[in-house]
Amino acid sequence: MQGRKVIITGVPGVGKTTVVNEALKKLKSEGVVYQSINFGTFMFDVAKSDNVVQDRDQMRNLDRAVQKHLQQRAAQEIAKVTGNVLIDTHASVKTPKGYLAGLPEWVLREIMPDVIVLVETDDDQILMRRLNDETRARDKEGSRAIGEHQQFNRSIAAAYAMITGCTVKIVINADFLLERAADDMANVLR
Ligand code: AMP
Ligand code: MG
Known about the structure:
Layout: E1 5-9, H1 16-28, E2 35-38, H2 39-49, H3 64-79, E3 85-88, E4 92-95, E5 98-101, H4 105-111, E6 115-120, H5 123-132, H6 143-164, E7 167-172, H7 178-189
Parallel strand pairs: 1-3, 1-6, 2-3, 6-7
Antiparallel strand pairs: 4-5
The structure holds adenosine monophosphate and magnesium ion.
Adenosine monophosphate is lined by residues 12, 39-40, 43, 56-57, 59-60, 67, 71, 88-90, 93, 102-103.
């Protein structure tokens, strides 16, 4: 069977990586294997070697053209990976000039995902998670702005489904219910 390509998205701080890691642990015992790829890390590796940033959280403030260049190079590298692939990324990136599509047409045509997952939860829960995360330079914004970003991500995910024919799955990662989110995610992946 050909490999499956699953794209995982969600606003910063929603807990994408945590849910994915829990789901992958469950699947490993069943012999379902995915290679897990972080889109931002691929971009950051290029950005570092081009000497344009020192920190991954600086990338969304770079010039739009530079971000698109990094995005394209990351997509080309990721497209080469075979087998079951899970790609941790963003449906849209909040930049000083507005929302930047995380998966514009030229990225989608490289990757051609089977499924796009939107990891979501209540806006105020995301706000609290960001405030408690000192490992990252998260954007300082209120829960209303976080809500707007989540809404925008749903809209743009519909456009991605139109281009690729992929399905769109919403996984809720609510406080104290990580186990449920991981189960929902595992069901998408198996
Ligand atoms: P993350 O570690 O997932 O928060 O990603 C770090 C950074 O990588 C983000 O803040 C963006 O600047 C960039 N990034 C990740 N995925 C994409 C994408 N699909 N398109 C554009 N930029 C991206
Ligand atoms: Mg992450």
